[in-house]
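Re: duplicated header lines in exported structure tokens

Our pipeline writes sequence and tokens for each protein into one text file. With two proteins the header for the second block appears twice in some exports. Here is an export where it did not happen, for reference. First protein block:
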Amino acid sequence: MKINKQVRVFGRVQGVFFRKSTQQKAVTLGIKGWVKNDTDGTVVLEMEGDIRAIQEMENWLREGPPMAKVEFLEITQMEKKDYQQFLILH
């Protein structure tokens, strides 16, 4: 079963390759959607995929890439949108 979640990642998450690392992890897990930096200093992503893959991605997001310092995640359940790939938005 596919689900869609939007996640806002708080902490030191910009300028530490967070978006690129998130895209790489999503592709590895077969997750589709997007990731972007927000003007408030957070990283926001919408991810869609198998429940297990989404759970694994959430666990990864709690740590992020090596240079990141994730403080917490704000997770919202969303409607499925049938994304075809995982993009970095600017």
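Second protein block, exported in the same file:
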Amino acid sequence: MIDSTKLSKSERILWNYGITDPAEIDLEAIAFGLGATVRYRKLDGCDARIVGNTTTATISINTNSYPARQRFSLAHEIGHWYEDRRTGVLPCAAEDIGPQNAEARSKEATANAFASQLILPDYLFKPMALGRPPNLDTASCLAEKFQASLTATTIKLAKVSPIITIAVCHSQTQREWFVRSNAALTSDLWPIKQIHHDTNAFELLFGDSSNKSTPKNEPANKWLTGLSIFNSTVKVQSTKLPDGTVLSLLFVI
């Protein structure tokens, strides 16, 4: 039985609509219920934009973005409207919108956290992830069910994992971002800043292949720093993202 008092703001919206399945999450209908009309159009310099006057708003979504990105952008703008009800024009650049930015303390981060819970609500996501290995195969399956991006779903899967799990993204020059599970927050483990040359992720990053690797056991010191990695092993799976970076999901075994 779900205790609705413990739900996030986003989840309470879904709960009040009686949503019990990911397929029922209709973001345009939710926006309309909050007084916002959604339009899809070409935008220059931003992925989404909201124009409001305290009671009604128009949300514009960039048609040049891929569908999962459009969906997260819409949820992000719904978050702005729900939280701020501000007047005027608010454009949101691509770098402002993304689940990896949900922890920072800013209005954009608040909107990202709102969006993540609106698209991938814990009360639906956690039961569906329960008992599944925290790898990219699981994330891909759940991403399809929730109509979410692989990146957003991987981050959510890492966060809710009951074991030490880390989602990390590397470019050819550095670690771009990472997210740890609550179980990992109590450890001294941190993902390395530059990807190790003897990993499948390195081959994906510097090679031509865009295929997802198979889950593989690797020494923890190829991926993590910290005193507790001594003689530890991780299971890791990686994939190349459209922007050329590599996303990896790993957990300590």
